Every structure is written in C-alpha cells, then in structure tokens.
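[step 3/7] inverse_fold.run input=structure_tokens len=447
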C-alpha cells in the first residue's frame, strides 16, 4: 500500500532502501560489466539470446548485392568481392502488433482502447574480424481506435563503432537521434490533455576499455539532450535539458573469475529554461560511488553486486540535496539449456515534471525467467517493482509491472509473439494511483 512520505527531504531514504536491499542481496545480482570475461558468454547462452538456435536466426543480405540490384555497384565487382560494401550485412525486420489496454491514460478515468503498431527496422552491420561498425534505423507508428490524440510516430537512428587499438585496448563511440513519445503515467509525463507528449532525444557516447591479465578498466563519457515539443496550450520547454555523465571503472581479478571493482561517476544536469514558472532553478550536479564484487567462475553464471553512495546537489537553495545509499545489481544464470533466470536492481536519481520537486529517488528490482518449451517455443515471465520517492513533496509511488510472454518461431523468417501484462501504481498523490491490463499479439518478419 502507499505510505505517507517522511517529513525529512534530505533523501537518505533508509526506509525505502530497507524494503529493496534484502531482495537485491538475496539475488546476488549485478550491473552488466564490460570488464567481465564470461558475462557476455552467459548472456549469449541465455534462452532469450539464442532464440531457438541458428536455424531461427535472421540470415541477412550482403549490402553489395543489394546495391547491385539497383545499379549502384557493378555485378562483376560483387562477384569479385572487390567493393568496400562486401563486408557489410543488412538485416531488415518488420513487426505488426495489435493490442488492447484497459487504462490507456493510466489514471482514474480508466479509458480503454485498441491500438495497432507498425514497427519497421533496418540494421547494417560489418562482419570484420577486427573493429566493428553498425547503423540502425527504426520506427514505431501507433494508431488508436478511439483516442487518435494518443497516436504517435516514433523514429530513431543509431550509429555505433569500435576500434580495437590492440589486443588489450578498444575505443568505442555511438550516436543516436530519436523522436519519441512520453509514456502516460511516468515521472516525466506532463499530463497533457492535448495528446501524447513528444520529444527529440539525441545522445553521444565515447568509451575506452582496457583488459589486462588481472586489471581491467573502463572510461565512458555520455551526453544526452532532450527537446520536448509544445502541445496545444502546454509549454514543455521547461523540460528541455542536457545530461552529461562521466564514469570510470576499475576492476582487479584477485582469484580466477573473481574480481573487485570500484566505479565512481559524476553528472551535470542543465536545463534550457533555468527557472520554472514558479521561480525554481532546475540545474543540478551529482556524484555516485560504487564498490563491489564480480563472481564469474563459469559461462553458466555471472553475478555482480555493487554498493555505494549517491548524491545530487541543486542550484536552487529551496531544493534539498538528495543523497543516500545506492546499489547496482544483476544476475544471469543458465541452470540448463532450456531455462534462464535473470535478476537486476539498482538505485538512481531521476528528473520529474513536478516543479515543486527537486527530483525522485528511484529504487528498483526485477526478475525474469525464460523457458524453451521447444526449440521454437519460448515462454517468459517477468516482474518489476520500483519505489519512487519524490523529494520536496509528500508523494511516493509504488509501481508493479508483470508480463507473461510466449514467442513462437515459425522459421528464420517469421515469428509470433503474444504478450499479457498488468501495471499497478499506488501513489500517495490523490488521483495518481491506477491499474492497467495489457494484451497484444505481434506478427514479425525478418531476413
């Protein structure tokens, strides 16, 4: 049940952490770590990643052959594999989903609706022995039956690459531009009556990885901009912001498969509109420190758990600092070839659309199980719980999400996916609690 918020707004949130931390400790879980040698193996061997085996995986098409069809590349050059495009493979994909929700707006109005979503996607990847380069294009076009104001056209483009400078050092870079819509009922949902709130998010990430005999390190710089569209009668420019984060991670393997790590990070959150309509300064900067242990004895199991401290300081003197214990966790376990169990958890500070709140301290845990009933039939069950503590107000949100999924792989070209879900939010803020039942059926095609 929802609870009254504590009078203090310092953000230490010990009560909230006590509710989540025992679960996270029991799961022995982890943040996915680039420095782990078997983490990628455990992930690749999971039921979800294997998707029934090679016979059900997309084949792809060689880029130079496609270009020769439209006359952009000479066919003889294709046969000789003498063009620079011969080392790229194209993977087209299309999903068509029909769905139903009992509470589209995720509020106490309980308006139900049907939706059809068409999701084309195109990925181009290199097949080089060293280095890598990929380009991704995708879209999600949603059309509602009774509430056309909630229709959306999401678009995204991603470019990513890796340079293997040596056997031990690699450099990575990625950039993405996406036009998205804000999910109803989320922390950053302005609650516009004019329709779905849309925004453009652009991000750029640079990374450097070092993998030695015992020591491994990671440095990562990310910059993310969010630019919100104004709706009819609603000025969303106050939500426009830039998030810059610098993270450094070092790990030392003191026993085979077992390592300790330390991961400090700093962030800067800068808003386009420095003051809200009620005069509040929105900018802030923060730090986080995690220290933990990686257990990576075999490719069947990978587990890591980190604990530490986080803090976010706000420019507005009327906003209290948010600070307190933090953790990050994930588990990947393949007890058999037919079953994969996963768990994850973490704590972070999120932005919120509430002008009277500095931010939200969010604690989350999740569980997932994937079972291969047959090579081409995969059943999944997942659940997630999150606690959102809106600092500077008396609001707390308990969010529960449950999903049941069945995936049927017809062959390497076609698949079916059925999904049923339940969302439940209990809030101390009057009118913000809701429940929602979801159901959808997807027909997918890929090459």
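[step 3/7] decode complete -> sequence:
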């Amino acid at each position: 049940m929802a609870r009254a918020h504590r009078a203090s707004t310092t953000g230490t949130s010990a009560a909230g952490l006590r509710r989540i931390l025992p679960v996270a400790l029991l799961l022995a879980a982890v943040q996915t770590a680039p420095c782990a040698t078997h983490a990628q193996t455990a992930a690749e061997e999971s039921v979800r990643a294997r998707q029934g085996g090679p016979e059900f995986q997309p084949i792809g098409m060689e880029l130079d052959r496609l270009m020769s069809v439209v006359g952009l590349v000479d066919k003889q050059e294709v046969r000789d594999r003498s063009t620079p495009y011969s080392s790229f493979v194209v993977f087209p994909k299309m999903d068509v989903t029909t769905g139903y929700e009992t509470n589209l707006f995720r509020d106490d109005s309980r308006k139900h609706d049907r939706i059809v979503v068409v999701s084309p996607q195109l990925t181009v990847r290199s097949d080089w022995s060293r280095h890598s380069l990929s380009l991704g294009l995708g879209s999600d076009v949603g059309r509602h039956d009774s509430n056309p104001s909630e229709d959306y056209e999401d678009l995204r483009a991603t470019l990513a690459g890796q340079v293997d400078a040596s056997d031990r050092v690699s450099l990575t870079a990625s950039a993405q531009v996406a036009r998205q819509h804000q999910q109803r009922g989320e922390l950053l949902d302005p609650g516009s009556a004019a329709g779905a709130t849309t925004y453009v998010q652009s991000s750029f990430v640079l990374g450097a990885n070092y993998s030695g005999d015992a020591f491994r390190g990671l440095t990562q710089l990310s910059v993310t901009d969010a630019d919100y569209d104004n709706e009819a009668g609603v000025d969303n420019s106050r939500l426009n912001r830039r998030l810059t984060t610098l993270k450094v991670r070092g790990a030392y393997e003191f026993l085979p498969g077992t390592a300790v790590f330390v991961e400090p990070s700093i962030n800067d959150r800068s808003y386009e509109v420095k003051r809200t309509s009620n005069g509040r300064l929105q900018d802030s900067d923060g730090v986080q420190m995690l220290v933990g242990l990686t257990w990576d004895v075999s490719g069947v199991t990978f587990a890591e758990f980190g604990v530490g401290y986080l803090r976010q300081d706000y420019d507005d003197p009327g906003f209290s600092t948010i600070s307190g214990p933090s953790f990050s966790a994930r588990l990947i376990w393949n007890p058999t070839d037919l079953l994969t169990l996963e768990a994850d958890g973490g704590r972070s500070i999120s932005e919120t659309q509430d002008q009277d709140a500095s931010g939200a301290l969010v604690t989350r845990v999740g569980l997932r199980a994937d079972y291969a009933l047959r090579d081409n039939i995969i059943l999944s069950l997942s659940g997630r719980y999150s606690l959102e503590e809106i600092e500077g107000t008396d609001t707390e949100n308990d969010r529960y999400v449950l999903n049941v999924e069945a995936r049927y792989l017809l062959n390497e070209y076609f698949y079916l996916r059925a999904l049923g879900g339940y969302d439940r939010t209990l809030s101390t803020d009057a009118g913000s609690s809701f429940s929602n039942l979801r159901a959808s059926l997807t027909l997918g095609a890929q090459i």
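[step 4/7] annotate
The helical segments are 14-27, 39-44, 47-50, 63-69, 75-80.
DSSP finds five helices and 19 strands in the chain.
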